[in-house]
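Repro:
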Amino acid sequence: MTGAPHGLSRRRFALAASLLAAGCAAPHQGTGRPGDPIVLTLLSHYASGELKAALQGPVDEWNATHDRVKVRTKAVEFNDLLTTFMVRQAAGQGADILQPYCLWNGQLVRAGVLRPAPPEDAAEITRGYGAAAVGSASVGGKVYGYPTEAQTYALYYNKRLLQESGITHPPRTWRELEGTAYRTTRRDRYGNTLVQGFGLSTYDDSTTVGQTLALLNAAGGTFVSGDGRRTAIDSPAGRAVLDLEHRLVSRGASEPGVNVYKAFQSGQVAMVISAGWWTGSLKSQMGKAYRDVAVAPVPVPELGDKPATLATGFMLGVNASAQHPREAWEFLRWLNTDRVGVGKGATVTRMSALQVSVGSLTGRVDDMRTLLGKGGDPNLRPFLDALGYAVPEPNVPGAQQAKSLLRKNVEALWTGQQSVDESLRTIRRQVDQEVSRSW
């Protein structure tokens, strides 16, 4: 598509171009001389609500205590974030500090948008964060930013629904997962589903691709090969995952057309695999019914199998075109390494405190244990434990398109348009073409 950055749809390109024309250009950056401070822009998806307020707090603190360098936040909705990064960069109006979804890092590095972290920051990140978070923030062995949100996947379940079906503990293996799903599925006398045993849903990437990759990792498989040049899902592990999902749908334990986020909250889904960010939303939206929610590790194929799951996340990095990169890294170091007191002599980084305040985690395990040990939601603990064994989402240059292709084919399987064999062949052909072309 002439004139549009690689990987952008015509609609999103036009949207981002209109944002630029409407005045989203970077503000005057200043010189750093007295009376004319450097102004750094930080572009994120923290556009509204508690996320916007949570980020603005430390930014205001920085601005109140630093005269020479100021930080100004800008935000767009998540669905427009990658497009905005790419289009603003092409127009020479990229923000100084970026908060990308780590899946995009390979594409952003290839496009010359992200700057590698300085050696001292790279060493701090490698030393201070879990392996999955470091892997998500790295491309080709180089670290490009400080991990912020660290999301792992685990099994949410409704304790009341399991207990009503005579089940006393969450499933640990895939056999138990299937058995629990079938036993908790309920229908009325006309055959209409009242409760889904397991919530496979075509609602978004998290509920389609996230669940599939979490199960794939739990089976010892991977989506993309180690060198990033081909898909690896057409394997015994990949086939086992798609077979499992196909059985759940064909036997009526899952209804992919239902929005699982709403259905689980209303007690119409017994189990679903999702990321830790959902915990805060469930707690705030379910009220007293949240007491029925519990979280367990993603089941593995057989007892004794090594645990594994999916890790995704975001990071804060510096634009390769930033005029004041040293000052930008100084701010990020302050936000992500300086420690603040949280009572009884305990300290954590500002970013860790920020994320826990909105029901999320960072990859700083020590910080998370400190914060969750102070009365935090116990449903976050399985996600914290998973930081030790989660597998980072592949972030090769074609990762976003590869993920979209995987979602399309998994949903075609769930809705009866493709068999397991057809899905595996199509995923392999389409994803191989994408990731090999993108290098």
